[in-house]
Write a structure and sequence with these properties.
The protein has 639 residues and is α/β, with parallel strands linked by helices.
Length: 639
């Protein structure tokens, strides 16, 4: 592969360097200059270092050591993988297996890249990152673009290699007042655009870390190599090639020409994409997971393009997560972030004719043909492997101490939780320890924001959650989709509604004191006792209670009734029904029981007491209870 225009070929034996970096051989070079502070001084610096969110403004080009730069410090996990040299081509691998897997992955991806993927990678490379992320808004994306006056000049890719550099500029036919990127400050969504730009502000550059680590881009490490198909396939069925990483032809002249100033780690595009996504997600939390997914997907195009490697992309995500939290937690930005959220909510409600309670449904109303992020499970499959890429776990797991300020990232997504509770959500959904590179200072790389948006991963102590129906949006109703483990229990308070859909294994029991708790799966309520002391407990499907079930006071239990099905509520222990308790039965619309049949409703070890009344959602049928010592059935008769 020829060198890019104007690029002076450095005095480096590329094959020898590639062997050291990727092939697992011994380190080749002396390591002068910057290498001395990594990793020993990194560990020393971390002992008394300020929290990242308090020190993020040290991320300027003049600071390139962990002692002086907070970003370099939190990326210190890379110092266990790579030993920085005195120049871009004199570093050495400290974890050859990781870097070998890194390059092989990149080679495989670029080897099977399609023309369409090459063109897409060109668009993402050249387009303003803040604009690229907007598509994550789904049905709200076009509304955002018009409201923010956000435009781009990069909408397609050439078939071959352009003659010169191409940049995203204001199109000649753009409406007056338009702006590239997140949009114009003088627009209906100007505060949101300003928030995105602030999160991506002067202390958010990846360049200081690039200069500090001096890890080359993958194509610079194998420029003289040839592509060889080994005839083998990996565990995913991909052909196994040698270490060749091939840059997309559309990007050959878009590459940096000064190797010393164009390092690979961390990926600047990845950093910018995640920063923009988290800023949008703060202002429009109705699309939180989709925006996070969009950032992961776009960041992956950096590998597809051949411009970056997996470790570069991981580094970019780690620094962006910390930088976004720092900017959002900065008191100087408190008014801006509140104004951006309020402006976005008001704008989208007005444009869509929704309320705070119905905007979420509108934001998820498109099918997969119109919204590539409509399928949550598909989004999860997109994100999960990209959290770690080629990294493998080593050592024992350790509980995460959530970095200071990280909870702000969930502030609008889970407004009904306290800061301490959001920290618990982040801690209990975090990646396990043991992934080199992600285990740097404060371990920002372990945060899994996609999963955290779905609530707690564990109740390690008792959790009380209060949702207020009058608050609107997520403050009024939310869904926790994770499989919740732990020894603690859950108490539901407030007039709002909480839905649990996971296969939950928490042992501390469940208490409904007010509002609505919805069991969206058979094992939603864990493995302890269930007490309904106020409000409503609703089961969307057959519900299993592993302990005892107690209902008392003016409360309601709502259960489904289905033809040829077992009891709607299965209780391993006893059932105790107090005065005022109501049973509300909901006929299954697809398979309702026939008139005259007796349908099992509750099955328990022992049943004591009766419901004050039994309701049925039918104008023509009534439910006549049949109590036994160990359960309840109803006979369906015409009114």
């Amino acid at each position: 592969m020829p060198s890019s225009a104007g690029h002076a070929t450095p005095s480096l034996n590329r094959r020898r360097f590639l062997t050291a970096s990727v092939g697992g051989g011994a380190a080749l070079v002396a390591v002068p200059a910057l290498a001395g502070w990594l990793p020993a001084a990194d560990a020393k610096a971390a002992v008394n270092a300020a929290a990242f969110v308090d020190d993020y403004k040290t991320n300027v080009v003049a600071n390139q050591t962990p002692e002086t730069n907070a970003v370099v410090r939190i990326l210190g996990g890379f110092a266990k993988v790579w030993k920085t040299g005195g120049a871009w081509n004199t570093g050495a691998p400290l974890a050859p297996d990781v870097l070998r897997a890194n390059m092989r992955y990149c080679a495989r991806i670029t080897a099977v890249r399609t023309d369409a993927q090459a063109k897409e990678s060109f668009i993402i490379d050249r387009q303003h990152q803040s604009y690229s992320v907007i598509a994550g808004l789904g049905p709200l994306a076009d509304l955002y673009k018009s409201g923010a006056k956000a435009v781009t000049s990069i909408t397609s890719a050439p078939d071959g290699t352009p003659a010169g550099k191409i940049s995203d500029t204001l199109p000649a036919d753009a409406p007056a007042g338009s702006a590239i990127g997140a949009g114009s400050y003088d627009s209906d969504l100007g505060q949101v655009a300003r928030l995105v730009d602030t999160v991506r502000g002067p202390f958010a550059s990846g360049n200081p870390a690039k200069f500090a680590f001096q890890y080359p881009r993958p194509w610079r490490m194998n420029e003289d190599s040839e592509v060889v198909d080994t005839g083998k396939k990996d565990e995913f069925g991909f052909p196994v090639y040698d270490s060749k990483v091939v840059v997309a032809p559309q990007l050959l002249r878009q590459r940096g020409e000064n190797a010393a100033e164009d390092g690979g780690f961390p990926s600047g595009h990845t950093n910018a994409l995640h920063l923009a996504a988290l800023a949008y997600a703060y202002a429009v939390p109705e699309r939180f997971q989709e925006l996070v997914t969009r950032a992961f997907e776009l960041s992956h195009t950096r590998i597809v393009a051949g411009m970056h490697s997996t470790v570069d992309v991981l580094g970019g995500r780690v620094m962006a997560t910390a930088l976004a939290a720092a900017a959002l937690a900065d008191p100087a930005n408190a008014e801006l972030k509140a104004a951006a959220r309020a402006q976005a909510l008001a704008y989208f409600k007005e444009r869509t004719g929704t309320t705070a309670d119905t905007l979420y449904a509108y934001a998820h109303s498109a099918d997969a043909d119109r919204d590539p992020y409509a399928d949550r499970d598909a989004n999860a499959r997109t994100v999960k492997p990209k959290l770690t890429y080629v990294l493998t776990r080593r050592g024992r797991d350790e509980s995460l101490t959530v970095p200071k300020g990280a909870e702000v990232l969930l502030e609008t997504r889970q407004p009904y939780l306290s800061a301490a509770q959001r920290r618990e959500v982040l801690r209990t959904t975090a990646l396990p320890a043991g992934y080199v590179l992600l285990d740097g200072f404060e371990q920002w790389g372990r945060l899994d924001l996609f999963t955290a948006a779905d609530g707690y991963g564990a109740f390690d102590s008792d959790v009380t959650v209060t949702l207020d129906a009058a608050a609107g949006g997520f403050g009024a109703a939310d869904v926790w989709r994770n499989d919740i483990r732990g020894e603690g229990g859950l108490t539901k308070r407030g007039t709002g509604a909480l839905t649990l859909t996971g296969h939950n294994r928490y042992h501390g029991g469940t208490v409904v004191e007010a509002g609505t708790l919805v069991a969206g799966s058979a094992n939603a309520l864990g493995q302890g006792d269930v007490r309904v002391e106020g409000g409503l407990l609703r089961a969307d499907k057959v519900l299993r209670v592993r302990g005892s079930y107690i209902q008392e006071g003016e409360t309601t239990l709502e259960l489904p009734l289905r033809k040829n099905h077992g009891p709607a509520l299965e209780v391993s222990g006893r059932v105790v029904l107090g005065r005022g308790s109501v049973l509300s039965l909901r006929l299954d619309t697809e398979r309702p029981p026939a008139v005259g049949t007796t349908v099992p409703v509750v099955e328990a070890q022992r049943l004591r007491g009766q419901f004050d009344r039994i309701e049925l959602n039918s104008d023509t049928l009534r439910a006549v209870p049949v109590y036994t010592a160990d359960g309840l059935s109803v006979r369906l008769l015409r009114r």
